[in-house]
Every structure is written in C-alpha cells, then in structure tokens.
C-alpha cells in the first residue's frame, strides 16, 4: 500500500511540475533563438486562431475606431470589422517574448493552473504591459496555445 501511495504522490508532483518544466524549455529556446524547439513547444495554429478571435472580439465589442490601429500594430490585417490575416509564426512569438527584457524566469510574476488542462503564465507586472501565455495539455504534453499582450 505504501508503494501505491508513493506512486500516486509522485504522479501528482510530476503533474504539477511539468508546466514549469515546459516554461523552462521555452525560456531556453527564447534565449537561444531556437526556432525548432519553439515549434515543438507551441501550437502555432491554435495561437493564430485564438489571436484572431481575440482581435475580432475587441473590434466588435469596443468599436472599430481605436481597435483597428491596435490590431494593425499587433500584426493583424483588418478589413471592415473583421480580422482577416494574422501574421503569426515563431518569429512573432519570439518578438513578444523578447519584449520581457531578460529571462522569462526573471519576468515571471504569475504561473498557475486555470483548470486541470490549462496553465496561465504572466510575464511582467500588471499595468506595465505584461505578456500572458496560455498553455494547454494536448495528449499528455503541455503546449502554448495563446499569447496575449
């Protein structure tokens, strides 16, 4: 019985430690500008989808006047009241993560589970234009699925 409870305890500790380990891997990839490693750690298609939905929601709910300029600054082409083409790739994500001035670990101000399969990270202080990273568990592996500015 001690063996089984020990295994359960180790599984729980590993579950809670894995997102932090993946953040460590992301930090190493950003510091070394390792595009191949970042591509494995990031679900680019999901980041594109979430970013486009976020910009469209902002345009539709806050009015197009101020949001069109902000959306264009974030690299999204806007046609009318919809975001048409998000230019999001590994370089786009690297640019957002390099904005944090130094190591991701030094800028980390919040990191914890939002749900059993979602992990939220905030880089930078609130009110000082922080970068938020959303990781989701996909097939027992944590991957970045959203980057918010």
* General form: globular
Total strands: the figure is: 6
Tell me the number of structural domains.
2
Secondary-structure-derived class:
alpha+beta
What is the helix content? 40-55%
Strand order of the largest sheet: 3-4-5-6
First CA to last CA: what distance?
48 Å
CATH third-level topology of the largest domain: Nuclear Transport Factor 2, Chain: A
Please state the average pLDDT score: 82
Beta-strand percentage range: 25-35%
Question: Could you explain the architecture of this structure?
Answer:
The protein is α+β, with helices and mostly antiparallel strands and 149 residues long. The protein has helices spanning 2-31, 35-41, 44-62, 64-73, 90-98, 104-107, and strands at 76-79, 82-86, 108-115, 118-123, 131-138, 141-148. It folds into 2 domains: 2-41 and 89-148, Nuclear Transport Factor 2, Chain: A (Roll); 44-85, no CATH class. Helix 1 (2-31) crosses helix 2 (35-41) and helix 3 runs antiparallel to helix 4 (64-73). The model is unreliable at 79-84 (pLDDT under 50).
Summarize the structure.
Helix content is about 55%, strand content about 25%. It is an alpha+beta fold and about 150 residues long. It folds into 2 domains: about 1-40 and about 90-149, Roll (Nuclear Transport Factor 2, Chain: A), CATH 3.10.450; about 45-85, no CATH class.
């Amino acid at each position: 019985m001690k063996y089984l409870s020990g295994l359960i305890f180790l599984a729980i500790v590993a579950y809670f430690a894995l997102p932090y380990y993946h953040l460590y891997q992301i930090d190493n990839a950003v510091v070394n500008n390792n595009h191949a490693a970042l591509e494995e750690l990031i679900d680019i298609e999901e980041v594109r989808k979430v970013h486009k939905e976020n910009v469209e929601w902002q345009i539709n709910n806050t009015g197009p006047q101020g949001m069109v300029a902000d959306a264009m600054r974030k690299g999204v082409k806007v046609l009318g009241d919809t975001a048409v083409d998000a230019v999001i790739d590994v370089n786009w994500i690297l640019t957002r993560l390099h904005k944090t001035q130094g190591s991701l670990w030094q800028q980390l101000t919040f990191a914890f589970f939002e749900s059993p399969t979602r992990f939220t990270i905030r880089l930078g202080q609130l009110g000082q234009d922080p970068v938020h990273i959303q990781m989701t568990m996909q097939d027992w592996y944590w991957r970045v699925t959203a980057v918010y500015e």
